[in-house]
Amino acid sequence: LTTEVRFLPAGNADLVVTTLGLISSQEVISGEPVRLPPSYKGQRNFPGLFWLATTHRTVVYESLLDLDRLWLADFDPSTVQIATQPFHLQGRDGAHLRRHVPDILLEHSNGSFTLVDVKPATRLSDKRVQDQFSWTAGLCRAKGWSYEVWSGADPILMRNLRFIAVGRRAQFLHPRLLDELEPLGHPEMTLAQTEQAATGLADENTLRMAVLALLWANRWHVNLTKPISLQTQLLEAPHG
């Protein structure tokens, strides 16, 4: 745990230099990115900014694959904090001096943390990549964090998440609308039937946004591995 860590606390213009053993998980995940992904003509990655419904703040991402992992984290109700480019690691790995900026740090509702490195599947067989991730995984085990190497998800799932994300900003709906709409939906009803049952609660466009808000908030559930349509049926809430 003597590996050097550099991170940028929230509201602080100066990097803090410490060790992995002394680093505060809460201070890091609430901090700022230690680097901003570069943007230049001809680059293959597509960096950008992503607004998180989970924390109501904007984070940077380095690639569209990073962005997909952020969509999943933002949708996951067990995720309570998300940081990107959270810190810089530097330390010895045998005879090698390694330097690494992980992609994402997640805090979960049970108080645990997961460090995520995003890498295309085509790069995972690279020995240098494997060694880098093996070193990082060992550091996470020593710190008590989980470690994840992520290479993508089902394209249909990702399209569905982007579709129901219209409902991420539920604060723009009437405060009582979701509470009035939620009990009108029952397992095996289609989304079209739920909208019909709710006729009169709001205009058509507002009602559609409210339906999507309930799906995004995991207050209603559907099969996200199949394309969503008005004929999609509601499911029982998953157990556990």
Fold blueprint:
Elements: E1 4-7, E2 16-19, H1 25-29, E3 48-52, E4 57-61, H2 64-75, E5 79-84, E6 88-93, E7 96-100, E8 104-108, E9 113-118, H3 127-143, E10 146-150, H4 155-164, H5 177-181, H6 191-197, H7 204-216
Parallel strand pairs: 9-10
Antiparallel strand pairs: 1-2, 1-6, 3-4, 5-8, 6-7, 8-9
Task: Please give a structural write-up.
There is one protein chain. 29% of the residues lie in helices and 21% in strands. The model has no long low-confidence stretch (mean pLDDT 94). The strands form three sheets. A four-stranded antiparallel beta sheet has the order 2-1-6-7, covered by helices on one side. It has a four-stranded mixed beta sheet with strand order 5-8-9-10, sandwiched between helices. It is built from seven helices and ten strands. β8 (104-108) and β9 form a beta hairpin. It has helices at residues 25-29, 64-75, 127-143, 155-164, 177-181, 191-197, 204-216; strands at residues 4-7, 16-19, 48-52, 57-61, 79-84, 88-93, 96-100, 104-108, 113-118, 146-150. It is α+β, with helices and mostly antiparallel strands.
Provide a short characterization of the protein structure.
It is built from seven helices and ten strands.
Cross-sheet strand order for the largest sheet: 2-1-6-7
Q: Evaluate the radius of gyration.
A: 21 Å
Proportion of residues in extended strands? 15-25%
Mean pLDDT: 94
Terminal residue distance:
34 Å
Structural class: alpha+beta
| Count of helical stretches | 7
How many beta strands in the DSSP annotation? 10
> Which oligomeric form is depicted?
single chain
Write the element-wise H/E pattern from the N-terminal end onward: EEHEEHEEEEEHEHHHH
What about the largest sheet? 4 strands, antiparallel
Helical residue percent?
25-40%
Shape: elongated
User: Would you identify the regions where 5 or more consecutive residues have pLDDT less than 50?
Assistant: none
